[in-house]
Design goal:
This protein has 922 residues and is of the alpha/beta class. The protein has 36 helices and 13 strands. The structure holds adenosine-3',5'-cyclic-monophosphate (CMP).
Length: 922
């Protein structure tokens, strides 16, 4: 046995005695992984780590990662065993492994001494990063070689007795133990600098003094803050400041708000794994809710105040041992997973039944599938070759190394060099297999050179400047692509100009303008509508202008609108997914999906069926940690609260928006811009619920008719506020439909705020503001570094734009669907006008009279003023040229209809009929 790579997936018991843990291989294995990544510089490279295998009864051998192990049995060849700590001990040798920084090793570890071959020598060597200590002790008590602290290791070890047989006079004993503690966790290289503690106490009373003294006894580097601002400043202001442990005085809320401080720390970058302790009054433990509040805020543990130094010391020791150290390890592992995820090489990890459990980004790219399509897949599905020999090798703890053919979704198969390492998290039989795939002969770059046809630019912010399809070649209907220059120059001018100022000042003004645009301080005006186009004026005016326009008109107290108070209790969600429905839903992520067919074959319950399909495809059940039946009931309740008698704003529209959202999420993921699972779930939920309980009348109508909703929301964003509000009222009304019930308080809050934000973004009066912000960020010619925009701010803009586009994507659907949507919305508008007339209410859109209105004209205006720029911007960002293509085709079609004198609903219906007859004749 030599130095063996170990598993990332193993679960070591963090407790237990020190001597035992010194034999753990996890650290050494991971260390070799790092050594490998160090690039094989041999002993000259001080960043490399060597494994030293120490045996009780045989001379010590030293091996580097490069030569594959002391006795050569566990190299990269085919005879290696499953990587397992116990295995190293399993041959009757008392074998320890540890890491040595080679530079230190040469000077400090006396190999000859270690290799003296004395039978009773238990030797442990630990060297950890810049806190390098090599301590070599013999259990007999005679002095071994002790190490020194390298640069950066400022620890002053305290003398103490060891629980194992070490000489009491040894000066490095504390350091030794500390290093030893670190090697016992399944980690690579836990950050092991001087442990730092921040004490947040508003004054230095005796409790604070005892805590401070205890920290000093544990050799913590202590900083004290007296106010919450001071504490938070320390975390954010100082360069790369971090603390392993933060102790907050939570005895009284008068001086310090511990809950607030803890929450803020958790939200500070880089402090997810900081251990937060709250010092509380003894009586505190009687108040369960206070305890929960602190824990919810991110506190790891509450400890009672004490003036007893030794009690405090013991408590602190336990905290360091059982919370701080595992946190340290977890943060290291997290970093490793991140690195693994970004590796150029393809890594897959399966369980012992060869079901895929983990795939890194390169694997997603190779397989041309997204992570959630890969996870849980049987390995046999991604290889054309027979994979049974992998198991056969694995059961014998042998590595596998062969050429296999990999299936790539929608792409040509490819022969890959596949190396498989069996690993055991527990026991000796492999529990997992780690796969490393590469093209034979290539040097890790193959995946990066895969056909880039569907490749998107990488990075967190994606500009829409990159070339998109030349839409002029797609349609020759006179509709011209609006240039991005035009988009970015939406009428956002402020009353200052750049004329007569220096270039520097002009640049500054540009920056300020850019900022102002993004902050929405300047609401862009809509494009000037041609006065000879009264239908467009009516429609666009109604969509983009607030209710004030109508308030001066006549009003009535009377309205037939009854909103809310519909189906709010849980209803049994009966679903009968017939083969027909199932077959149709197979296409549910296609832009050509037939939502009207689904409406028909589900007997007007498309949202339930499509919703379940989307939730399943995007793993929403797992993301929300919720039972499928709860999701089913939720969808059923939401669907029941859409008004089936609305011709447009019914559950088919909701399903359509959800379907479009699913397409966009898929495309974002395919372009390497994918959202995380929670954001995907939120987007789908918001889409499903975004128009729930829509009365089939506009907000202006509700204001004019003094509807209670308009009164409730002060005429502002009446409908959207109502959709968001009722979504949550319905969801929380019954545990059986509460899809959020398993979220913790923080997650629920953030999910809620994003759902609300997305629903409110569908409000059309802010259409150009949202569009302008989106374009100013993603269509900017500046590099993202010049744009002050956090990742979160960017994703807010993307989410808003996504739901907006989905909401009004009907002119970008294939022609027959586009016409049907136009017919439905026109019917709804006409019904509103009918009612306004009947009740002598102000008429919001007088041109939308069923006897006179030209539907093609309304669609031409809608596309020209609302849809066109938005689709170009979105297509340029997400790369879905079909959005623009269909829009162009539909626009031409409406123009033709207009020329042919097609105006009314009856005309459009007859056109629809003749089109469908033509289609079926083909
Ligand atoms: N094809 C269309 N023609 C005219 N107006 C539309 C069309 N599609 C959507 N809309 C309007 O755009 C609005 C977007 O928000 P709502 O769904 O609340 O209401 C929608 C309709 O009023």
């Amino acid at each position: 046995m030599g130095c063996s790579p170990s598993t990332l997936l193993s679960h070591n018991n963090p407790d237990g005695d020190d001597a035992h843990h010194a034999t753990d291989t996890q650290l050494s294995g991971a260390g070799t992984a790092l050594a490998a990544s160090g690039g094989g510089g041999g002993e000259k490279e001080s960043s490399l780590f060597f494994c030293i295998k120490l045996r009780r009864s045989r001379p010590l051998r030293r091996c580097s990662q490069q030569n594959g192990g002391g006795d050569g049995s566990a190299g990269s060849g085919g005879t290696g065993s499953a990587i397992n700590g116990d295995d190293l001990l399993g041959h009757g040798n008392m074998c320890n492994q540890a890491l040595l920084n080679p530079a230190q090793t040469k000077n400090e570890a006396d190999y000859d001494k270690i290799c003296s071959g004395k039978k009773d020598s238990i030797v442990t060597v630990a060297a950890l990063g810049n806190f390098t200590h090599t301590v070599v002790r013999r259990a007999t008590g005679s002095t071994g070689t002790s190490g020194t602290t390298s640069s950066g290791g400022a620890s002053k070890p305290e003398k103490r007795k060891s629980s194992i047989a070490l000489t009491p006079e040894d000066e490095s004993i504390e350091v030794y133990l500390r290093s030893l503690m670190d090697v016992k966790f399944p980690t690579v290289l836990p950050p092991n600098p001087q442990l730092k503690a921040l004490l947040v106490f508003h004054k230095s009373d005796n409790i604070c003094e005892v805590v401070t003294e205890a920290c000093h006894r544990q050799q913590l580097d202590v900083t004290v803050a007296r106010t919450k601002e001071g504490a938070l400043d320390t975390l954010t202001n100082t360069n790369e400041e971090f603390y392993h442990l933060i102790i907050i005085d939570a005895r009284s809320t008068k001086h310090l708000d511990a809950e607030y401080i803890a929450r803020s720390i958790r939200h500070t970058n880089g402090h997810h794994f900081t251990t937060i302790i709250a010092v509380v009054k003894k009586s505190f433990f009687e108040k369960d809710d206070v305890l929960i509040a602190l824990l919810d805020a991110g506190v790891n543990r509450c400890v009672p105040e004490t003036t007893n130094l030794s009690m405090c010391n013991i408590e602190l020791k336990q905290i360091l041992h059982s919370i701080v150290r595992p946190h340290n390890v977890m943060s290291t592992q997290q970093a490793l997973y991140t690195a693994l995820h970004r590796l150029k090489e393809v890594i897959l990890i399966t369980d012992n039944h060869l079901r895929i459990q983990y795939a890194n980004r390169a694997a997603e790219r190779l397989l041309n599938m997204r992570l959630d399509e890969i996870i849980s897949k049987p390995l046999a599905d991604i290889f054309i070759s027979d994979v049974s020999t992998i198991m056969i090798h694995g059961r014998k703890n042998k590595e596998f190394d062969e050429i296999l053919t990999v299936r790539r979704k929608g792409q040509e198969d490819v022969a890959m060099h596949v190396r498989v390492i069996p690993v055991a998290c527990i026991g000796r039989t492999p529990t997992h297999y780690v796969f490393n795939l590469d093209v034979p002969g290539s040097h890790g770059d193959f995946v990066a050179t895969l056909p880039q046809a569907r490749e998107a630019p990488r990075g967190s912010q994606h500009s829409i400047r990159r070339g998109s399809v030349d839409v002029r070649s797609v349609a020759s209907d006179g509709l011209r692509r609006t240039s991005l220059a035009k988009l970015t120059s939406l009428p956002l001018e402020a009353p200052i100009t750049k004329e007569n100022c220096s270039p520097d000042e002009a640049r500054l003004i540009d920056k300020v303008m850019e900022f102002l645009k993004r902050e929405g301080l300047y609401s862009p005006q809509m494009k000037e509508i041609r006065t000879d186009d009264p239908i467009a004026t009516d429609l666009i005016g109604a969509l983009l202008t607030g209710p004030s326009l109508y308030s001066s008109r006549r009003s009535s107290n009377d309205s037939i609108i009854r909103v809310g108070g519909r189906q709010s209790t849980c209803m049994p969600a009966k679903m009968k997914a017939t083969p027909h429905i199932m077959e149709l839903l197979e296409e549910s992520l296609s832009w050509e999906f037939d939502i009207f067919k689904l409406e028909e074959i589900t007997e007007k319950r498309p949202l339930l069926y499509l919703g379940m399909e989307m939730f399943r495809r995007f793993n929403v059940f797992a993301t929300l940690n919720i039972d499928e039946n709860v999701c089913k009931s939720w969808l059923a309740v939401i669907e029941a609260n859409y008004h089936a008698n609305n011709s447009y704003h019914n559950s088919t529209h909701a399903a359509d928006v959800m379907q479009a959202t699913g397409c966009f999420l898929t495309q974002l993921a395919a372009k390497d811009m994918g959202m995380d699972h929670t954001d995907e779930a939120i987007a789908l939920i918001a889409a499903a619920a975004h128009d729930v309980d829509h009365p089939g009348r506009s907000s202006a109508f509700l204001c004019n008719s003094r509807n209670t909703l308009a009164l409730l929301y002060n005429d502002l964003c009446v409908l959207e506020s109502h959709h968001a509000s009722i979504t949550f009222r319905l969801t929380l009304s019954d545990d059986k439909v509460n899809i959020f019930k398993n979220l913790d308080t923080e997650s629920y809050k953030s999910v809620r705020s994003v759902v609300i934000d997305m629903i409110l973004a569908t409000e059309m009066t802010r259409h150009f503001e949202h569009l302008a912000k989106f374009v100013s960020i993603f269509g900017s010619d500046e590099e993202p570094k010049d744009i002050v925009q956090s990742e979160e701010e960017s994703s807010i803009l993307i989410r808003r734009m996504m739901i907006k586009v989905a909401d009004v994507s009907n002119p970008s659907r294939q022609p027959s669907y586009c016409i049907e949507w136009a017919r439905r919305i026109a019917e709804e508008y006409f019904t509103q006008t009918d009612e306004e007339k009947a009740k002598t209410l102000p008429i919001v859109m007088p041109m939308f009279d069923r006897n006179t209105c030209s539907i093609p004209k309304s669609q031409i205006g809608f596309i020209e003023y609302i849809i066109q720029d938005m689709m170009h911007a979105w297509d340029s960002f997400i790369d879905m040229p079909q959005l623009v293509t269909y829009m162009q085709i539909n626009y031409s079609q409406w123009k033709k209809f207009e020329e042919q004198g097609v105006h009314t609903l009856a005309d459009v219906k007859s056109k629809q009929h003749s089109l469908s007859v033509k289609k079926s004749a083909k």
